[in-house]
Specification:
This protein has 227 residues and is mostly helical. The protein has eleven helices and no strands.
Length: 227
């Protein structure tokens, strides 16, 4: 899988950025260091000025790539979902067993992320922490409907649709496949967040992972009769 991934480019909707950061060394520095800073101080405290100081570049140079820090967060979120989608497709496409395929998909979408050496300028472990803690800020805004019309969330929505199709392959009569698919993806982030910050209100811990929870939830649900 890693050899195949190394030949692929993670595609982010081009309306999110002004200039594709993947096309220059400065752009890659912007992405690499924005992940480090946001993970360290949080998105609210993050500014392009702080990023500019970190990379030794004028703040104005960052604005040549992104209109504002909200667009940068949208970029990071979209990159993460596209990276996850590639793993989902590559690790499941050759499996003709629908149950095993869905099990693998749920595992990929709910597991704790490990470093992927195919993308040297992006620390996926830190990016994953940002997704868990900050990604909701990319869409919990007054501009979400317009952002959606612009296609900023197309990668995320495509990932949900892929998972929906796998669910329907198990139980074509299940009436809530999209709701279940989006619940798995968002619910996993929430359970990881609770485990890190509010462990007293989740059963997920080092012994009972969100993956185990969602595997149990999904297959228990799909095996029940639909009323």
């Amino acid at each position: 899988m890693k050899d195949l991934l190394s030949t692929l480019k993670i595609s982010v909707p081009d309306k999110i950025y002004i200039k594709d950061p993947e096309t220059s060394q400065l752009g890659k520095l912007i992405i690499e260091n924005s992940i480090k800073i946001i993970n360290e101080i949080g998105f609210e405290s993050f500014t392009f000025k702080k990023l500019g100081i970190q990379i030794g570049s004028n703040e104005s140079s960052i604005y040549r790539y992104f209109e504002n820090k909200h667009k940068l967060l949208l970029y990071l979120s979209s990159w993460y979902w596209a990276w996850l989608e590639y793993q989902l497709v590559i690790e499941t496409f050759s499996n003709s067993n629908n149950v095993e395929k869905l099990e693998k998909a749920i595992t990929i979408l709910t597991r704790t992320v490990e470093k992927d050496t195919n993308f040297s300028h992006i620390n996926e472990v830190l990016l994953y922490k940002i997704i868990v803690n900050e990604s909701s800020k990319s869409f919990l805004t007054k501009e979400v409907d317009n952002d959606n019309k612009e296609g900023y969330f197309q990668v995320y929505k495509r990932l949900v649709t892929r998972l929906q199709e796998m669910i329907l392959n198990i139980n074509p009569e299940y009436k809530f496949a999209l709701s279940l698919a989006s619940t798995i993806i968002e619910g996993s982030l929430h359970q990881h967040f609770l485990n890190s910050h509010f462990p007293s209100i989740t059963n997920c811990d080092n012994h009972k992972s969100p993956t185990k929870f969602f595997l149990h939830l999904v297959f228990h649900t799909l095996n029940k009769n639909n009323d």
